[in-house]
């Protein structure tokens, strides 16, 4: 390149800017170097790195090109740089021409020569005066870092066998700037790009922009730049003096002369202008537009190469920034970015540790998805949606907001809406963001919009409900409408899939869709396990709609409504809401009046179940009419209809619920009289006795409870029916082999016998003749020897057994009964029973006493040791090591729960009514899961005793937060150490996930953290620690 002579005013003789001319020449030369290194196929990584250094140098030269106030001595620096660039161009051009025959030694020589050139360029760049950069401190630091990198550069030709080692030693960051850029500065970088994607350093941009690498593959001419803005023109217009400007810039210039139109001058030439006429420079505009199109295509390719190479975070950032600029200029470029295979590369960028890279990537992906259905689908299919969703919990606000904005854009795509349902915990994360408005209003509002878009798929509505957000489901249940996507084929597909209607294409109309939508939502409501609070909320919102569906819906809709109403009615606080909505009349009509040909019996069973739930809440029977004729539930008509339907031939479920209704009605004096009368005078009394031995244990228990309730009013009648039934009464008393596993049916059975009239000789003789007395005495003895009541029904069972012996003592005038009393020594038995009752009383008093707060672990163990009777054998025991504590243990000396056999007693205490006692028991069990013991052995031992089910029952039956925290801690430990077996057992409990979600949303900080850990163990929430190693 020839030296350029200039006058003292830094202008050439023809008036052109000398620095601008030198810069254009340099940039053209660098463009040729880059084109050459891209074509070189040998040592591709090395020559790509060489091209990157020259590209970065072009950024500095670009600063000089657009800044016409550069100091004079810069010309000499540029001329020196021109010589080095010419040398490099000669080396690379020669290498391209002779690549097919070049030897390794020659290749090594060329690389060494280029290495020397780059070092020399770095030296010259370091000589550029600081004043060149003006107030652009960032540009100054970037140029300084570039100069240092170039001076320290080192390349080497690596044999194929050495490439792997070289890859590990290669410089990883070509942009080693020792400056931390805050997020807000980074976010502003995209704002300083002009429409064409070029960064004007005089406006505060970075020197490290990728646009220039592609830009100078297509030569840039000074005529492209507006003399006023120093930027490439979009709408070039020519004024009277013949100088071309950007139309907007020259118009603003003219506006300055509004007060004195005669003084308008050309800003570049200084020539006075007589007219403000502007002429579009068509030829130049066409040239610039054509150059932009070629340049943008080249920039996209270069950006893709940069992302593929990704030698540093800065390189990735610049590539993404340039792509954002290119995509902003025209929609067509977005299509080109997708077609060139950029989306998978961007997906990789989301895994970077750098927050800046992740933020820029999210913003670019959002830009590619905007106003482009195809773009949304491609991105949704390619990206790992869980990665974006996890960023919603980032503690870096820009990343969090960018991920929310991208998800909002993608949520307008049906592909995304389907895919989100497969992401574990995805919808839960969105719901969590929605309800954290106080901490992040933007994320909350955006998450709300995303969730509204996801409602386009009914399955997503169900997932929202399962994760504690019920409003969408209830809204669609009440209103019936659903937002579908705009494409007609998709709409038809979703409707056909959702409603399972084969003729949906022919019969798609609004009313049908509303009915089907209500049915779908009611079905979801019935299938999903609801917590107590949710049942109340659902009852308030949806009761009228569900009852209306029972009245007027088709069979499928009615079944769905019944399922939902069953869940709601099971929560007694909902009774008032349901009654006010008219549920009593509807259910009575279903049971007694409604008859539809071929309709299954299920509706009557479900109506009876709902009615039983309502009545069990303690509803005043006389206050509500249940028919159009003014009947109440205690009316003779209603009572008779209920009793008459209890038959052996009726379904078990129907009989169970009818008996439940009678157990509620019998509390009303008016109804009691009718019930006793009807049972006495009909065959129902025989039916009830026969139902005692039904295989359905729940029906048997309900029947016996009703008979016990009726016994004070018609005891002798029931005794007569019982003794006339084959196999009775002996079948009511079983020889109990395991006294710790007493069932509820066994307990109510013996109590039924004890409650019947004691002096009924027929029944007493039947008990003696069937050898039942020996079974009673044996069972009493076993309970006394066990020293405790480990089953929740043991006390009731024991009282019933004693009651049976007591009834026999009322008829000792019969010689058979007297002989039996002497044979089994009733006096000793009664004395033993009295001792047992005394011990039971002492134990009950101790357990009922609230545990003392903040006791030491030893004191807690002493407490349990005192309240649990432990019988130790008197003989010598073989000394063995405790599997849990690893040493010699005893209940007396080390307070070992295992040696004391106290685990079973502690589990029994979990059924206690006093919450503080339950908490104390859980605390004692927790001691066996502490890190100080062999937890694996403890988990194995506790699993054998079904601890998981006991603890889950505690969570299900109680809502106290302190109790939940204790139970959650135990469950988490069992999940951590119990492996897949524990996960399987806990996952089978349908109620527990709903409880966890409720605790996650509404509990205090400690409870939320525990619930979150368990949700992660059960794969109900994404595990951030395992899958995202970068700093959120």
UniProtKB/TrEMBL annotation:
SMART domains: ARM, Ubox. Gene3D superfamilies: Leucine-rich Repeat Variant, Zinc/RING finger domain, C3HC4 (zinc finger). It catalyses: S-ubiquitinyl-[E2 ubiquitin-conjugating enzyme]-L-cysteine + [acceptor protein]-L-lysine = [E2 ubiquitin-conjugating enzyme]-L-cysteine + N(6)-ubiquitinyl-[acceptor protein]-L-lysine. Keywords: Repeat, Transferase. It holds the Pfam family Arm. It comes from the Eukaryota. Pathway: Protein modification; protein ubiquitination. Residues 219-298 form the U-box domain. InterPro entries: ARM-like (IPR011989), ARM-type_fold (IPR016024), Armadillo (IPR000225), RING-Ubox_PUB (IPR045210), U-box_domain_protein (IPR052608), Ubox_domain (IPR003613), Znf_RING/FYVE/PHD (IPR013083). PANTHER family: RING-TYPE E3 UBIQUITIN TRANSFERASE (PTHR45958), U-BOX DOMAIN-CONTAINING PROTEIN 42-RELATED (PTHR45958:SF4). This is RING-type E3 ubiquitin transferase.
């Amino acid at each position: 390149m020839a030296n350029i002579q200039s006058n003292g005013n830094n202008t050439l003789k023809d008036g052109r800017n000398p620095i601008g001319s030198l810069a254009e020449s340099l940039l053209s030369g660098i463009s040729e170097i880059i084109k050459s290194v891209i074509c070189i196929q040998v040592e591709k990584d090395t020559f790509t790195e060489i091209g990157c250094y020259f590209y970065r140098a072009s950024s500095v030269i670009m600063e000089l090109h657009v800044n016409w106030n550069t100091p004079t001595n810069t010309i000499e620096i540029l001329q020196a740089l021109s010589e080095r660039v010419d040398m490099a161009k000669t080396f690379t051009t020669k290498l391209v021409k002779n690549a097919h025959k070049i030897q390794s030694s020659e290749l090594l020589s060329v690389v060494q020569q280029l290495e020397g050139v780059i070092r020399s360029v770095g030296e010259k760049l370091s000589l550029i005066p600081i004043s060149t950069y003006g107030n652009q401190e960032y540009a100054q630091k970037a140029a300084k870092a570039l100069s240092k990198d170039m001076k320290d550069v080192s390349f080497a030709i690596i044999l194929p066998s050495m490439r792997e080692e070289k890859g590990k030693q290669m410089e990883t960051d070509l942009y080693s700037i020792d400056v931390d850029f805050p997020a807000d500065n980074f976010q502003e970088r995209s704002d300083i790009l002009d429409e064409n994607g070029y960064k004007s350093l005089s406006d505060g941009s970075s020197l490290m922009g990728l646009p220039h690498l592609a830009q100078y593959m297509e030569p840039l001419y000074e005529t492209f730049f507006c003399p006023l803005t120093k930027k490439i023109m979009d709408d070039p217009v020519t004024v009277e003096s013949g100088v071309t400007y950007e139309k907007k810039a020259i118009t603003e210039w003219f506006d300055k002369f509004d007060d004195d139109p005669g003084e308008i001058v050309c800003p570049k030439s200084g020539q006075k202008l007589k007219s403000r006429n502007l002429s579009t420079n068509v030829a130049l505009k066409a040239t610039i537009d054509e150059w932009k199109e070629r340049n943008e295509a080249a920039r996209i390719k270069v950006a893709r190469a940069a992302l593929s190479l990704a030698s540093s975070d800065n390189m990735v950032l610049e590539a993404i920034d340039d792509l954002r600029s290119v995509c902003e200029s025209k929609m067509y470029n977005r299509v080109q970015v997708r077609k060139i295979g950029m989306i998978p590369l961007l997906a990789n960028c989301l895994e970077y540790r750098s927050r800046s890279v992740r933020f820029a990537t999210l913003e670019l992906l959002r830009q590619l998805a905007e106003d482009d259905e195809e773009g949304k689908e491609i991105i949704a299919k390619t990206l790992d949606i869980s990665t974006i969703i996890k960023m919603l919990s980032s503690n870096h606000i820009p990343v969090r907001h960018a991920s929310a904005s991208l998800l909002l854009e993608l949520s307008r795509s049906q592909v995304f809406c389907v895919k989100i349902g497969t992401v574990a915990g995805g919808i839960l994360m969105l719901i969590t963001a929605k309800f954290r408005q106080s901490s992040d209003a933007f994320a909350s509002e955006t998450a709300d919009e995303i969730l509204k878009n996801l409602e386009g798929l009914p399955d997503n509505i169900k997932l929202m409900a399962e994760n504690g957000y019920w409003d969408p489901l209830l809204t669609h249940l009440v209103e019936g409408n659903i937002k579908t996507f705009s494409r007609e084929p998709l709409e038809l597909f979703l409707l056909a899939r959702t409603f399972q209607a084969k003729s949906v294409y022919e019969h798609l109309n609004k009313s049908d869709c509303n009915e089907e939508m209500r049915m779908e939502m009611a079905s979801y409501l019935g299938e999903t396990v609801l917590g107590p609070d949710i049942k109340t909320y659902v009852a308030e919102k949806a009761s009228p709609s569900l009852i209306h569906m029972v009245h007027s819906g088709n069979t499928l809709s009615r079944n769905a409504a019944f399922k939902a109403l069953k869940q709601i009615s099971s929560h007694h606080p909902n009774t008032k809401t349901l009654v006010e909505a008219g549920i009593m009349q509807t259910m009575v009509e279903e049971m007694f009046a409604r008859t539809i040909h071929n309709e299954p019996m299920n509706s009557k069973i479900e109506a009876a179940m709902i009615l039983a739930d309502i009545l069990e809440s303690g509803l005043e029977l006389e206050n509500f009419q249940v028919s159009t004729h003014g009947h109440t539930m205690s009316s003779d008509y209603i009572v008779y209809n209920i009793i008459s339907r209890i038959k052996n031939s009726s379904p078990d479920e129907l009989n169970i619920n009818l008996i439940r209704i009678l157990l509620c009605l019998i509390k009303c004096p008016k109804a009691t009289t009718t019930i006793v009368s009807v049972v006495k005078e009909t065959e129902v009394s025989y039916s009830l006795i026969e139902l005692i031995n039904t295989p359905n244990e729940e029906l048997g228990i309900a029947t016996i409870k009703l008979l016990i309730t009726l016994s004070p009013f018609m005891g002798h009648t029931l005794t007569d029916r019982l003794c006339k039934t084959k196999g009775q009464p002996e079948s009511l008393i079983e020889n109990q082999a395991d006294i710790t596993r007493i069932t509820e049916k066994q307990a109510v059975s013996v109590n039924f016998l004890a409650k019947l009239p004691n002096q009924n000789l027929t029944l007493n003789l039947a008990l003696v003749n069937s050898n039942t007395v020996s079974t009673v005495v044996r069972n009493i003895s076993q309970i006394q020897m066990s020293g405790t009541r480990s089953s929740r029904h043991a006390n009731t069972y024991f009282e019933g057994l004693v009651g049976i012996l007591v009834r026999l003592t009322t008829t000792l005038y019969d010689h058979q009964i007297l002989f039996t009393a002497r044979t089994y020594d009733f006096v000793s038995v009664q004395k033993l029973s009295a001792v047992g009752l005394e011990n039971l009383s002492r134990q009950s008093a101790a357990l009922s006493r609230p545990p003392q707060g903040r006791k030491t672990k030893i004191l807690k163990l002493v407490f349990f040791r005192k309240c649990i009777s432990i019988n130790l054998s008197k003989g010598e025991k073989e000394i063995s090591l405790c599997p849990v504590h690893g040493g010699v243990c005893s209940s007396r000396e080390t307070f070992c729960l295992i040696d004391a056999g106290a685990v079973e007693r502690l589990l029994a205490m979990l059924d206690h009514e006093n919450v503080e006692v339950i908490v104390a028991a859980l605390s004692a069990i927790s001691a066996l899961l502490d890190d100080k013991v062999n937890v694996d052995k403890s988990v194995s031992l506790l699993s054998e005793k079904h601890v998981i089910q006991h603890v889950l029952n505690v969570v299900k039956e109680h809502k106290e937060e302190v109790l939940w925290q204790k139970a959650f801690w135990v469950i988490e430990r069992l999940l951590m150490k119990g492996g897949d077996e524990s996960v399987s057992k806990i996952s089978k409990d349908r109620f527990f996930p709903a409880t966890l979600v409720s605790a996650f949303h509404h509990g205090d900080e400690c409870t939320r953290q525990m619930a979150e850990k368990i949700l992660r163990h059960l794969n109900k929430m994404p595990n951030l620690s395992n899958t995202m190693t970068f700093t959120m």
